[in-house]
Amino acid sequence: MSAIGITKISDGVITDSLFSYVNPEVPFDSFNIELTGIDDFTVADAPTFSELWETIKPWMESGVLVAHNAVFDLSVLKACLTAYNITWKKSVRYLCTVQAGRKLLPGMKHNLNILCDYYGIPLDHHKADSDSRACAEILLRYIADGANEKDFIRTYRLT
């Protein structure tokens, strides 16, 4: 993980956000640099995941985690927790906006950029803060269109 973006929704509106670069303490490969624009120099002074954990932990514990391709993001979270020997929860409740979108908007592609174009949501793709905000906006659009988010909540095992 080289960056984290978290967007908080309360009572149907976006209320807060958090962004930080993360120093993964390993060299970057060219694919990830090309995809995200983040390299060794970008994160040189950034906290490691373990240093950032106490800041992001309260955000992660307050409700359901929502992500686009959530199982991928949760697997990265699990790997970071394991790598730094951080004990947290055995499982987390999550909602995947891709999986929800496949049921709510059948017949279309569910890439983040395509859904953002469909809903008119601004996106600076593969930037953690923008991706996080866009995911929150997509969830709010699903709900505004009549979806019950509780129908899409799942559990992911972290241990």
Describe the structure.
- With 159 residues, this protein is an alpha+beta fold.
- The chain has one domain: Ribonuclease H-like superfamily/Ribonuclease H (Nucleotidyltransferase, domain 5), CATH 3.30.420.
- Helix content is 42%, strand content 19%.
- It contains 6 helices and 5 strands; from the N terminus they run E-E-H-H-E-H-E-H-H-H-E.
- The strands form 2 sheets. It has a 3-stranded mixed sheet. Strands 1-2 form a two-stranded antiparallel sheet.
- Helix 4 packs parallel to helix 6 (128-144).
- It is globular and about 45 Å long.
Key phrases:
single chain; 159 residues; alpha+beta; Nucleotidyltransferase, domain 5; three-stranded mixed sheet; two-stranded antiparallel sheet; 6 helices; 5 strands; 42% helix; globular
